[in-house]
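Sample entry follows:

_____
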Amino acid sequence: MQFQFDISSNALPATSNSGSTEALTNQMILGVLQQVLDVQKQGLQEIINLQREQLNHARGLHAENLNRWRTVLARWETHYPELPGNCKQIYPLMEKAYLNMLDNLSQELIDQGRDAFESEFALQEFIDKNGQKLGQFGHLLSVIGPISEIGNQQQQNSEPKST
């Protein structure tokens, strides 16, 4: 058995109008690139619109949460008049303590290296040791934070405005 391959047919055909053919080919390539860019631009615009919607939704939830706390605090204002101001004072301390806990946790994991979660037992021990404490402290921050923000707003509203 013998095989024979002819590779001379792979050569590009010689054209006499190479200048006009190249110009036409370049125009087609530019047209395709423009369409690709238009599709990408449309996709990016859709992403931006979605992110705007998500941001507006998050802002609405935050405002709703603050209004809920304002209602609760207004209802109990005679019993707890200092609560927003107190929360405003302690919130930075709690933030610092929480960040300190996270920093200590991260340093501990860095010291243990890649073997920190090698076994199921090590992972469960880590969660048992840190999970509840971090979760509960994070929840406290999420409750005290809005009340602290209301305290900030009350302080700003009670301060005389300079002209």
Remarks:
- Residues 21-80 form one domain.
- DSSP finds three helices and no strands in the chain.
